Amino acid sequence: MASTRSQKPSAKAGSPRRGAAATAIALLVALTPATAAAAAPTVVAGPSSIQQAVTGTASARAVTVKIRGHVDHPRSFTVARLRSLPQHTVHVRYETSHGPEKHTFTGPLLSEVLKPAKPRIDAGAKNAHLRLFVTATGSDGYRATVAWAELDAAFSGRKVLLAVAQDGSKLDKEGPRLVVPGDVKGGRYVSGVVRLYVGDPA
């Protein structure tokens, strides 16, 4: 006659302890290298075209040209705003300490940039505007001066520009450049203009 022995109840597959262990194993299996790589943040090797466009726009807005001096309404222009004005293109050649240079510049006429500031001109004096001068200051402190008669295209026939592009490349980062066509030497081609001072020696 077979005897019956009492047996201890074995742990069932569905017990809480085994369930927790199974869940942990499932998580480890799920977290494969491919999954971890997918979850990791994407590293961009270089700036995208969109990032470059945003950076260029930010630079165009950051560089500011202040108009001060003998004016009724001091003004400030960003490169982006200068580009919104009517644009002119000139081809110039001038001598430098490194030899001759030839460039193509595009930008608004300096006279058009100054117009909103309303330079003070004595309407009762003969050719009063011919007394005025404009000094351009670069970001490095370099300065050069042009007489009003030179920048007035109707008087001199020159197209003195505050260029926002040189040889097809935008000057958003460097800042605008004073361009004085007809100068034999490039000493008045002030780079990175940040200030325009209108003066009257009278």
From TrEMBL:
<dbReference type="Pfam" id="PF00174">
    <property type="entry name" value="Oxidored_molyb"/>
</dbReference>
<dbReference type="InterPro" id="IPR036374">
    <property type="entry name" value="OxRdtase_Mopterin-bd_sf"/>
</dbReference>
<feature type="domain" description="Oxidoreductase molybdopterin-binding">
    <location>
        <begin position="60"/>
        <end position="183"/>
    </location>
</feature>
<keyword id="KW-0732">Signal</keyword>
<feature type="signal peptide">
    <location>
        <begin position="1"/>
        <end position="38"/>
    </location>
</feature>
<dbReference type="InterPro" id="IPR000572">
    <property type="entry name" value="OxRdtase_Mopterin-bd_dom"/>
</dbReference>
<protein>
    <submittedName>
        <fullName>DMSO/TMAO reductase YedYZ molybdopterin-dependent catalytic subunit</fullName>
    </submittedName>
</protein>
